[in-house]
Amino acid sequence: MEGEIVNKVADSGLITISPEDYYPAGRRMSIDLGEVLFQGLILREKDFREWIKTHDWEQYKDAYVAVFCSADAIIPVWAYMLVAASLEPFVRKTVAGTQHDLETALYQDVVANLDLEEFRDQRVIIKGCGNLPVPDSAYVMLTEKLRPIVKSLMYGEACSTVPVFKQSRTV
Question: What H or E segment, with its residue span, contains residue 79?
Fold first, then answer.
């Protein structure tokens, strides 16, 4: 039929994956240990243990929590461990680090558990740009997991992709 509009993208056989589709839903919260330091510089064990005992841990129920220190201070590892132990009954996940570190850890879990068999021998686009805070590392993790199984891997949108990997043809 002459003049018929053909959707070449739909007919291309390309499969698009959006990392945002795998974004773990849930509240993100932070605990700044810099706020509980003596004079903003020193972590005193007795004071810290009192803070641990009196802090409202239930406010973190079902949240993903990043524990970090904004002050230029040396925080002993056991302090992070005490916070993690206190959070454990309430939270979905605790990470020692920034919100960015938290997002990276969440995507490590997500990508590690993805069943990507449907993408075997397919031409795949990993969609970029979005509204959620998907860390760059999520794209790297997806690339690492998809590369051994796909025919080709691209980044972007179907109308404008950047080739990342293409399986070589064997004759």
Answer: helix 77-87
Q: Which amino acid is at 137?
A: S
Quick one: CA torsion of 139, 140, 142, 148, rounded to 10 degrees? Answer: 140
Position 21, amino acid: D
What average pLDDT score do residues 10-21 get?
A: 82
- The H or E element that residue 117 is part of is none
Asked if 65 contacts 29 with a C-beta cutoff of 8 angstroms, the reply is yes
> DSSP code of 42?
B
Specify the long-range contacts of residues 158-166, CB closer than 8 Å, at least 24 apart: 158/9, 158/12, 158/14, 158/16, 158/125, 159/9, 161/125, 164/126
Q: What is the pLDDT of residues 23-62, one digit of tens each?
A: 999 999 999 999 999 998 999 999 999 999 999 999 999 9
Cα–Cα distances in Å, from 72 out to 30, 32, 33, 79, 98?
Answer: 17, 12, 11, 15, 15
